[in-house]
Amino acid sequence: MTRDTVRWGILATGGIAAAFTADLIDLPDAEVVAVASRTETAAKAFAERFGIPRAYGDWAALADDEDVDVVYVATPHAAHRTAAGLCLEAGRGVLCEKPFTLNVREAGELVDLARDRGRFLMEAMWMYCNPLIRRLKALVEDDAIGEVRTVQADFGLEGPFPPSHRLRDPAQGGGALLDLGVYPVSFAHLLLGEPDGVAAQAVVSAEGVDLQTAAALSWDSGALAALHCSVVGGTGTSASVTGSRGRIDIPNGFFHPDHFVLHRAGRDPEKFAADPADGPRSTMRHEALEVMRAVRAGETESPLVPLDGTLAVMRTLDAVRDRIGVRYPGES
């Protein structure tokens, strides 16, 4: 494509779709042209809220809209395979919310479909597109703390969530791991790649989903990661990366930080703060900008969120679920 404006469709009308759309409409080269929901009423209400010209009461109509360049899929993750697949089949590019799918089998099907059709596909792992996280990764790659030895990260919500809530519903892919644990796991992958070993323990609800999970990942290099997620206790959402010659701490909100601190022996701690020009820490504009850059360049995936990396994260999440005995309806 040669024009500067990228035309977006929004598939789903929940909270995350609203947050993304609010960021998207502030970007000068983005145009939101259509939205779809399971009901026309919901789609029309969303369209009126954000000034979107077309509203569809079914997903296929959005997928078939030839004025749409990229569809942002914001359904619950149990529906990601169906929704993203529908859009890719119809020739749309797709930005699909995390977790990418329920399991690596579904993820592989989407990746194969996108590559076969030559269509853009990216997981909406906004953490990887965050300028401060990219700065942290660059410091680690530039040997600022030496060889990485340990990664620690946590993400927990206080709740309580009733059994009827989507976070506790197996049919919707409920549980702490896929909804929250994807962040600590993805953070460890960002710095160390796919682990060579996976161990895990969890507290599993009566419905069969994990209420909290602790995972220990290991690499043949000798590096370890200690990761935790929970829907029964609010954690500090902190992270730390320890190397052979230093440490980087993110004291809170590690997946969208406002600062981190570099510690090295014999030196004063160095604080790296987010640039106010990059917007509030909750913004998703950076992933949208990366999608638009890639689409305009004719790329079918992003180097910041590569599809092979997404598949690797899904393999790790599958391995953790295997260790804790969580299965979703329809899985073998």
Q: Mind explaining what this structure looks like?
A:
The chain has 332 residues and is of the alpha/beta class. Helix content is 34%, strand content 24%. It contains ten helices and 14 strands. The protein has helices at residues 15-24, 40-50, 59-63, 80-89, 104-117, 126-129, 131-141, 176-192, 285-296, 307-324; strands spanning 6-11, 30-36, 54-56, 70-73, 93-96, 121-123, 148-156, 197-204, 210-218, 224-230, 239-243, 246-250, 259-264, 270-273.
What is this entry, summarized?
34% of the residues lie in helices and 24% in strands.
List keywords for this structure.
10 helices; 332 residues; eight-stranded mixed sheet; single chain; alpha/beta
Radius of gyration: 20 Å
- Please, what is the average pLDDT? 96
Order of helices and strands: EHEHEHEHEHEHHEHEEEEEEEHH
Helix content: 25-40%
* Largest sheet: number of strands, sense, barrel closure: 8 strands, mixed
Task: Detail the topology: elements first, then pairings.
Elements: E1 6-11, H1 15-24, E2 30-36, H2 40-50, E3 54-56, H3 59-63, E4 70-73, H4 80-89, E5 93-96, H5 104-117, E6 121-123, H6 126-129, H7 131-141, E7 148-156, H8 176-192, E8 197-204, E9 210-218, E10 224-230, E11 239-243, E12 246-250, E13 259-264, E14 270-273, H9 285-296, H10 307-324
Parallel strand pairs: 1-2, 1-4, 2-3, 4-5, 5-6, 7-10
Antiparallel strand pairs: 7-11, 8-9, 9-10, 11-12, 12-13, 13-14
Helix pairs in contact: 4-5, 5-10, 8-10
